[in-house]
Amino acid sequence: MYILISFRNQIAVGPSSQSGKPKEFESIFRISRKTFDYICSLVGEELKTKPSNFTDLSGEPLSLNDQVAVALRRLNSGKSLTSIGESFKISQSTVSHVTWRFVEAMEERGISHLYWPSDEAEIGQIKSKFEKIRGLPNCCGAIDTTHILMNLSNVDGSNDVWYDREKNCSMVLQVIVDPDLRFRDIITGWPGKLSDATILKSSGFYGLAEEGKRLNGKKASLFEGTELREYIVGDSGFPLLPWLLTPFKGKARAQTEDHRARFNRRHFATRIVAQRALARLKEMWKMIGGVMWMPDRNKLPRIIFVCCLLHNIIIDLEDEVQDEMVLSHEHDAGYRQQVCDLAVSEGSLIREKLSLYLSGKLPP
Fold first, then answer.
1. Per-residue pLDDT tens for 109-146?
2. C or N: which end of the chain has fewer Cβ atoms within 10 Å?
3. Residue 222 DSSP label
4. Domains, the chain
5. Which PANTHER family does the UniProt record give (predicted)?
């Protein structure tokens, strides 16, 4: 508690060049002072337009830095309102209100950090980085889902929809990720009872892709007369579509390793970026990484969304503190792989041709 109280005094000093004990700062927030200052500048105007009377227990007003510090600590520690309040010498209700005001401000001011690239040069860089992983050409993203766990009342029958296949209460987050672990598209708020395929079909991205308004850019030439459209990759829980390539099912033939098995290895190495991004999200923002106690299910999707924005901001600012985090791909411990049997024939043909091409069984 002493560290956090003394830290509150430290963050009120001013610009990062004047602040002391940077390692103490980074150990508490796991971001650099530069990133903290940027977040303050991002939400400052929004917070100031809505005057508040937030004070600590001694009646001293909370500064902008104080409010951002409280909200970030609440989100990245996952600790209770009581614990955060004791650390900063403020009431539980103040912690709750300050955090929610920060979430609202980030929704308004941080949205520019989450977008699907429309610039040809930017999407070209994404494709190039994906291809360098294991050779998949013209890939634009990796899709995956994770479960945000909740502890809900057993008495309320309306909570049954939140029970997922593993008998946990959860809310699903679906993300599409680029090679730098940046979220490019997200959807959340759906109950854990729903399958990955169902949530995908309910997403705006699915509708846009089906209408030809996403993944409709420059095609790649595989060999004479055959072009490969833009696509994303996902695991077997998703349907196989012309714009969403999933792995081949089944095992390779005995004593041989066919082109399908080799494709699956390339595919896994490419799509693992989505797993790593989700693992980092939950490790960094522990409020959504643990089991949430009786959360407001109307507010939770917005909290998840803001955590995704903060995840992207850290990447966009090239925050070196993140480099010290262990890179994991485990984000849904205890969850079995879902399997979707839907396979559109055009998607099957595209995947087969691509796997043959990558194995050198078709003319280059």
1. 999 999 999 999 999 999 999 999 999 999 999 999 99
2. C
3. E
4. 1-10+22-112 (1.10.1750), 116-359 (no CATH)
5. EXPRESSED PROTEIN (PTHR22930:SF291), PTHR22930
